[in-house]
Amino acid sequence: MSSEPQDAFDARCARRRILRLSAILFTVIAVLVLVLIEVYGYSAVRDGWDRIAPVVTAVKWGGMVVLIWQWKPFINWVAQRQRLIAGYRDYLLTLRWRIAVALVVLEILFGQNLLAHLWN
């Protein structure tokens, strides 16, 4: 018998759940894009993306700003929902700026296509 409650936080299970949800989201978006290309054609889909790209970029940057700005309430909510121990919650709270820098670097490299410009 373990002294931990049966519904205690399991990091391995959480990682698997995040990976599973990410794979499902990627698959849904890929299938949606392929269906749109099949129905409307590549050039129409590309033109539509070019029109909404500034809005998508603003939403991505806005989401990152809100996440970092509201980091403590967000982590407290996750800790309560996932029944995290206080030490792990505090560790996640200390990761705020590392995650902020990682999000910005990933957005600049991939979202703003800097990596492709560096290769050319």
Describe the structure in your own words.
With 120 residues, the chain is an all-alpha fold. The chain folds into 2 domains: 33 residues; 70 residues, no CATH class. It is built from 6 helices and no strands. The longest helix has 30 residues. It is extended, with a radius of gyration of 19 Å. The protein starts with 10 loop residues before the first helix and ends with a helix.
Write the layout of secondary structure elements.
Blueprint: H1 11-40, H2 42-69, H3 71-82, H4 86-94, H5 96-111, H6 114-119
Helix pairs in contact: 1-2, 2-5, 3-4
Short key terms for the protein model shown above:
extended, mainly alpha, 2 domains, 6 helices
Short description:
This protein is mostly helical and 120 residues long.
